[in-house]
Amino acid sequence: EAQARCPELVVVKYDQVADARAFEPVVECLEALTPGVQVIRPGMCAVKARGPARFYGNEETAAEKLLDRLETFEVPGGRIGIADGPFTAEQAARASSERTRVLVVPPGESPEFLAPLSVDVLEQSTLTGLLRRLGLRSLGAFAQLPPAEVLTRFGPDGAFAHQLARGADDRPLVAREVPPELTRTLEFEPPVDRVDQVAFAARSVADELVARLTELGGVCTTLRVEVGTESGRIHEREWLHPRWFTAADVVDRVRWQLQGSGTATSGLTSAVTRIRLIPEQVDPVGSQADGLWGGGPDERIHRALTRVQSMLGHGAVVSVVVGGGRGFAERQTLIPWGDRPVPAHAPDQPWP
Length: 352
Known about the structure:
The structure is a single chain. By secondary structure, this protein is an alpha+beta fold. The protein has three domains: 2-106, no CATH class; 111-165, DNA polymerase, domain 1 (Orthogonal Bundle); 184-293, DNA polymerase, Y-family, little finger domain (Dna Ligase, domain 1, 2-Layer Sandwich), CATH 3.30.1490. The protein has 13 helices and ten strands. The protein has helices at 2-5, 16-31, 50-56, 59-72, 86-95, 110-114, 125-133, 139-143, 147-165, 195-215, 247-258, 299-312, 328-331; strands at residues 38-41, 44-46, 80-82, 102-104, 184-194, 218-229, 234-240, 267-284, 318-322, 332-336. The strands form four sheets. A four-stranded antiparallel beta sheet has the order 5-8-6-7, with helices on one face. Strand 1 (38-41) and strand 2 form a beta hairpin. The chain is globular.
């Protein structure tokens, strides 16, 4: 309907990784005040109230401190709900307003608070549709059913939803493990306007990054390179590797990204002021090791193709991925070596 009203509208597929990356500074901001933050999903997190309440005097004051901290880091509009369990606290946060940013559900009063809410807040479309057909439109009406009969009629998922509706959410709060800082940044003062000079300087931070990953027992399989220029623009790209990145591979990706403006010895359209290397996906070394009978691309083939790719450019070596389409030519998609093998058209749909 939106596209019918606005034909030039572009629909972008949801990218959870991008949302998680954007939400990461918010989580770090909260962890500076209180440890043990659990990220439920990008945009929502939970913390235990006992520790901050003891430190700041009470729960409301602690919540206000957290919101003030977020506003200091230019994250306005935060809401906090305090309750016995995560589900009730989430609904309390949603029920808060701009004037009352913190809503507290007193201990033991979760069932009364949840009772008038719609069953849609359970976020189980199949279950809520069935409940509405049965005349159960509120959490209070659903909570009055016997738990044993709910389990028999609706299964484990329905029994869990029934537990939430009764305000008996006993899920423990599992704090996230703070990941080690792996991002490496290289500043250029004065700015550099040659590709080969930038690539040569990037070798030191690439060696440092790979050495740090080796200490942690991991390897990088997806790397994001951000290039800041003197004009103020930031050029970023996500690079994949069929096995894992070595320091030489990282330097090659930096050079290939810069070569969009020319050859290895040519000048850039705008001088480079900063290079950031951000490992997007880090796997344990053991998960990337070859099995007893081999596995993954042959090491000799990979080295040869990577060598040719480093001399001729990122798009000079490609592999074929079969997707959907009418004819054989339309079904094949050429993917640069090392990139994610995603066809241009979904393979389960014959028509483009």
